[in-house]
Write a structure and sequence with these properties.
GO molecular function: acyltransferase activity, transferring groups other than amino-acyl groups
CATH topology: Aminopeptidase
CATH class: Alpha Beta
Oligomer: single chain
Order of helices and strands: EHHHHEEEHEHEE
Number of helices: 6
Protein name: GNAT family N-acetyltransferase
Organism: Streptomyces venezuelae
Structural class: alpha+beta
Shape: globular
Distance between the termini: 32 Å
Helix content: 25-40%
Keywords: Acyltransferase, Transferase
Number of domains: 1
CATH architecture: 3-Layer(aba) Sandwich
Strand content: 25-35%
CATH superfamily: Gcn5-related N-acetyltransferase (GNAT)
Radius of gyration: 16 Å
């Protein structure tokens, strides 16, 4: 089924498609436990925000967004990997102990779920993270809401392992950290 899709990084000029797929993701019934953003907050962003988001995820070593593109040009899935530099501060205000990637914005349209497309997106994201020169990416992490067992199951099957770190959210719920250590070469 997903052999008809191209997995690739976004281009800087594709901001309208970046915005469109993000809005679709934020309308998904799983969005409240999958994303730390609402559709309303995304809609409040101007074109310049989306242009900068696409440009920042298209080049350089700070971030890369990968999409699954159907033969007709429609985007059906996405994942973004952010590079967190050792010694910096992460989203939660904690010091980053090692050079690592952080997967965010994982989304596949409902009709594609269970097709293996997420694994192909993850393959591309991790391959890119491992390909970066010094400092080398030591691991890739992600966080999953405690009420999102489908996603958590996929992450474990893919090879991510729970680190034991739990992050409390303002809602009182928690997110679990999962890590994937760089394979030995």
């Amino acid at each position: 089924m997903n052999d008809d899709y191209v997995i690739r990084s976004v281009r800087g000029d594709e901001w309208e498609k970046v915005k469109e797929l993000r809005l679709v993701a934020l309308r998904d019934p799983a969005a409240p436990v999958a994303f730390l953003e609402t559709e309303e907050s995304a809609l409040a962003q101007g074109d310049e925000f989306w242009q900068q988001r696409a440009a920042g995820a298209a080049e350089g070593r700070g971030a890369r967004q990968f999409i699954a593109e159907a033969g007709d040009g429609r985007w059906v899935g996405s994942v973004t990997v952010l590079i967190e530099a050792q010694g910096g501060t992460d989203y939660f205000g904690e010091t980053i102990e090692r050079q690592q990637g952080h997967l965010v914005g994982v989304f596949v349209r409902p009709e594609q779920r269970g097709s293996g497309l997420v694994a192909k997106l993850f393959d591309a994201a991790l391959d890119w993270a491992w390909s970066l020169g010094e400092p080398a990416t030591e691991r890739v992490r992600l966080f999953v809401h405690e009420d999102n067992p489908r996603a958590e199951g996929f992450y474990r099957r893919y090879g991510f392992e729970a680190s034991g770190l739990l992050v409390p959210l303002e809602t009182g719920a928690k997110e679990r950290e999962y890590v994937y250590t760089r394979p030995a070469v």
